[in-house]
Amino acid sequence: MRLSKVRNAALVLLIVIFSAGVGYRQGMMVAKTRTSISTEISSEVNMNLFWEVWGRLNEQYLDKKSLDVSKMVYGAIRGMTAALEDPYTAFLAPNDNARSKEDLSGEFGGVGIQLGFIDKTLGVIAPLPDSPAEKVGIKAGDLILKIKDDLQKIDRDTQGISLTEAMDLIRGKEGTTVVLTIGREGESDLKEVAIVREQINVPSVDLSFVDNGQVAWLRVYRFGDKTKQEWDKAVGEILTKKGGTFKGIILDLRNNPGGYLRGAVELAGDFVTDGVVVQQEGRDKTEKFSVNGEARLSEVPLVVLVNQGSASASEILAGALRERLGVKVVGEKTFGKGTVQEAQELSEGAGLHVTIARWLLPSGKNIHGEGLEPDVVIKYEQNKDNPDFDNQLEKAIGELKRG
Fold it and tell me: What's the CATH code of the domain at 327?
């Protein structure tokens, strides 16, 4: 049961942990103050109704203790962004904004568990290597039935819990303890596992050599703050392998939910020697992003691997490599997320992610809602005799060798 369902849950996991489906324009913008925008909206909107409702709630609502002014303001702002009916434009309260930054930085206090749902029950997709969770014996496929934290007065059954809420409860300050009630396939008894939280560093890039060392399996999990640094290290290792029996690179973008658009452009620049790799169509103009750099891997044979969890910046990279270089794309149809958000800082530590543009492939094609169709379509299938066997990766290796 475990590995097949664990792999199938990867998209859901990444949407929560890595802010999936969101292509951010790197850099922050401070929003206008209320004073500067008040004259802009006064001629269009009468705010009297808002203040009328606000006043009546404060004067008449039965439970005065429930009238939390901050929550009411945040709720009103969330309603304003929700009215746009754009799931990617969102207001983030201070705690949510801090978590979003943690996700993109890859650093936070926690236990090192990738979360998902297994048969609609909160479960472990995988413990991160050398994490607190792995050290105490947490395994992929374990079901998390209860979360307990005496210090924070948390004692929560996970039935009906959302991934966001579960992540908030499990994460916490370094050195503190969270107790998880675990159910494991093949074991009738539940067990409580106490885990001491540590600083968790989630990698953006992972490199290994497969097929007897002939193929570089280069996995990019997201485009965050440290992606370029980790990418450069991996490229350096690949360059030492060039020549001899070395066949090339499998660039694995499966379950990569995106991140910073600039990251996709930078990585494309290590394959494409020059020219446009993505276009950004804004309200008033279209901006073209070009590369003209080292292209350190331009002469290395390449195949790109994608699936339905590949979104936004990862789709940009895959699409650019196919259109500009004729690189073969293997796997499953991608998510189809073609808009760009800008992460803006607001007062009091809050944030706003606002859609500012559409991104287009070098040809001008917009894949929003459609996704990229691979050149070679192959669905992931579990091998019951060898759960670690990856049929999609093997297919990509075969395509690479065929040239």
Answer: 3.90.226.10
